[in-house]
Write a structure and sequence with these properties.
Elements lengths: L9 H6 L8 H8 L30 H15 L1 E2 L1 H4 L7 H13 L5 H13 L13 E2 L1 H9 L5 E5 L11 H8 L3 E4 L2 H7 L7 E4 L7 H14 L7 E2 L4 H21 L1
Parallel strand pairs: 3-4
Antiparallel strand pairs: 1-6, 2-5, 3-5
Helix pairs in contact: 5-10
Length: 259
């Protein structure tokens, strides 16, 4: 006869335990930690990706790309000595002292001029006016002052564009025996004379109380002056420099073998 096995009840099924390897409980207890690791999953629908620096992948505006390409080109191309002279500017401390003196000799602005004329008109023209001690600006004016040897010091901006406007001025100053210096930049010189930009400024005369400091400043500028400026530029990129160095090492190795 066919024997029918009794069906397992639910309670009996719940009491059943899956087969466990011997020593599994001990291992689980040993692995238990106060701060268990919870690895992140960065798949779809998982943890949000951390923020990364995506600067390299940004498409920059055209003006940014142009100015960066221009600066790289200026480093790569060979620069003749007359233009390379404008990269040799005064150091920060010397330039700070120079601009402190320039600020003391700022020309008067419109409000100051109107106040002076009004005071002179109220005095009936009897008020004696002293000689104004101000820096001179304007390229044509400074050129005539240098040619007449009236300028005591010429300050030239390093970032005049086009550079042909002032590229000849250091040579003229040297020929006429007028001290000159090159500073950063045209906007800073323009602030001295109430303009947006200024290509060059010139001292014609200084007050008696400033003559000592002015002479010391001239001496420092002459000591910092680079006389014979050589060709500049021709600075290649890192990849090109490494390739050139590798080629030179290979040539040197070949020469040593032949010896």
């Amino acid at each position: 006869e066919r024997r029918i096995m009794p069906r397992a009840t639910k309670e009996r099924d719940l009491r059943k335990k899956p087969y466990e390897k011997p020593g599994a409980e001990k291992k689980a207890k040993a692995d238990a930690h106060l701060f268990p690791s919870t690895p992140k999953t960065f798949g779809i629908g998982g943890t949000v990706l951390p923020k990364r620096d995506l600067t390299r992948f940004v498409k920059w505006p055209q003006y940014v790309r142009l100015q960066r390409q221009r600066s790289i080109l200026l480093r790569r191309l060979k620069v003749p000595p007359a233009i390379n002279r404008f990269s040799h500017v005064l150091d920060k401390n010397l330039a700070t002292n120079l601009f402190k003196l320039l600020i003391k000799y700022r020309p008067e602005d419109k409000q100051e001029k109107n106040a002076r004329l009004k005071a002179a008109a109220e005095a009936g023209g009897q008020q004696a006016t002293s000689k104004p001690y101000v820096v001179k600006y304007g390229l044509n004016h400074i050129t005539s002052l240098v040619e007449q040897k009236k300028a005591k010091l010429v300050v030239i901006a390093h970032d005049v564009d086009p550079i042909e406007l002032v590229v000849w001025l250091p040579t003229l100053c040297k020929k006429m025996g007028v001290p000159y210096c090159i500073v950063k930049g045209k906007a800073r010189l323009g602030q001295v004379v109430h303009q947006k930009n200024a290509t060059a400024l010139a001292f014609v005369d200084v007050r008696d109380e400033d003559k000592n400091s002015f002479s010391k400043l001239l001496e420092s500028i002459e000591n910092a002056h680079v006389e014979n400026v050589k060709w500049g530029g021709a600075v290649m990129g890192n990849k090109s420099q490494h390739a050139t160095a590798k080629r030179e090492r290979a040539i040197l190795k070949e020469q040593l073998k032949r010896q």
